[in-house]
Structure formats: C-alpha cells, structure tokens
Input
Amino acid sequence: MPVIIGRRELIAALGGAAAWPLAARAQQVERMRRIGVLMNSTADDAVSQDRLRGFVQGLQELGWTVGRNLQIDYRWGAGNVERYRTFAAELVALAPDILMTVGAPAVEALQRATRTVPIVFATVTDPVGGGLVASLARPGGNTTGFTISEYGLSGKWLELLKEIAPRVMRAAVLRDPALAQGSGQLGAIQSAAPSFGVELRPIDVRDAGDIERAVTAFARGSNGGLIVTQGASSALHRDLLITLAARHQLPAIYPNRPFVIRGGLISYGDVSTDVFRLAAGYVDRILKGEKPADLPVQAPTKYELTINLKTAKALGLDVPASLLARADEVIE
Output
C-alpha cells in the first residue's frame, strides 16, 4: 500500500534536505596550513617588517588568512650562521607545510635540516653558483625562489657612484666574505673599475668594530667613495654604514632603497617588497600542489634608482640633471 505524504510533511522534508549541505559546511573546519619563515635580520628591523607585510598581504590576496587557514612561525637569524642552523632545526620540527627564507646562508641551513619540506627563498643573488638549485629553469630538489640581482648590476653601482660623484678615484667595496655572492659582486665591480679609472679596496663586513675601523682608515685618503654590496651583514649594519659615510664625507652607493630613505646618498637595486609578494605567489602554488622542482627561479622584473638630494647637498655634490631624470624616487 503506497505511503501518502501530506503537503505539510513534504515541505518540511524538503526544507530539511536543503539544510543538510549547509549544516555540513558549517561543521567543516578549513584545513590549517603552516609556514615557517626564517629571516636574515633582527625582529625589530623596519625594512624586514615591511617586506613581511608585503608577503602576508600577497598571501591574503590569494585566499590565505592568518588564524583562519594559515599559521606563520617566524625566526630571526640576524646574519649569524649558528642561529640559522638552530632556527632551521626548530622550524622543521614544527612540521610546516612549507618554508620561506631570505639569503643564501639561511637557505643552506634549511636544506641541511630538510630535503623534503618545500623551501621558497627571496633575495638570493646566485642560487646556482651557491649550489642551492641545479639550474634556474629546473631547480630540482625541494627549493626554488627569486634572485635579487645579477652580478652585472654590481658594475652599475660603480658607474652610478662615478656619475653622482665624479671626483671619486678610490672606492671601498664593502662585502660579506662569508657569501659566495660577495666575491661575485666584487669581481663584477673590479671588471668595470678600469673603465672609470677607479682604484678599489675590498672591506670585509663582519662586525661593527671592524667596519668602523676599516672605513675610518680608508677615509684618511682623498677622493674616496663607498660601494655597499648586497648581503645580510650590510643590511644588519645599515645605520652604521650610513653614519660612517656622512661622518667621513664619503659619497656612497647602496644596494636598495631603504639605505637612502634613512640618509644614504644613492641606491640602485630590486624592489624588495615586490619580491616578497612574488614569493607569496610561489608559496600559494606549492600549497595547492605544485612542486618546487618544477617552478623556475625568477629574476627581478623591476629595479629602482633612488637619490637623496639632502645628503648630496651635505656632501657638496651637484646631482646631474640627467641622473635626476632617470631616478624613480628623489628625496628632498
């Protein structure tokens, strides 16, 4: 005998069925993913904080929200190799889905700690030469990311220093001797030096005392200038380098804009906040299933020239109109 369902019961049944998917979705908790971040500076470094804001904003634009479907654990290496190794082990022990880091020494520490957890790096100058990836097109392994510059850019620093300060005949090149990229950058500057008639003197950037003594000794000569190369040590001693250049009246060129914002003369380099947003894109793709071995290492697509006219005036320099016209930002 057929079962007869009344109109009222049918509506109630249909309404309940329609509610089932909603109830199921309400009960589902979105999977929480975990990122371990190893920075090469200190936690109070304003530039690093700005870069990380770009990284997190990039993730948010791709649907990742801290506290909802994402957790980020931060560690700060401050340019110290032992700290990198300690913090790399700590981050891997937290069982992250992916790791993001800055600079070759930090990448090396993470690779020692894991060969399975994906690693995305930002701001590494020569990942192939440093043995971090097999090639730019096919990095292989568990690591990929973004370079900050090519060595040819280093020769450009000397050219710009000579253009803004034509009297410079001697240039101290401040570099981190622990980095493979330090030698590469110095080599590119040395190749360009004869064209500009500039004598170079390498200065190793290790600690504040060594830097101050070396720059002070160099400044005793005439017609000197400074070239500050890329690296965690130069970023860590950013304010000291700017102070020494001002104290000894040395025209100086720096690898990125934050130096000039804080009083440096001129900089030319990548837009670092953009690189961190790009790194967020790679993190998103890997979390969604792509393999770091299949994601090519990418170079910056934009470089910026920044000039501080107040500093130029304090050094008695007349900045050429042609140089000002090429600047992306002029600070007055």
Notes: The chain has 13 helices and twelve strands. The longest helix spans residues 7-27. The longest strand covers residues 33-39. The mean pLDDT is 89.
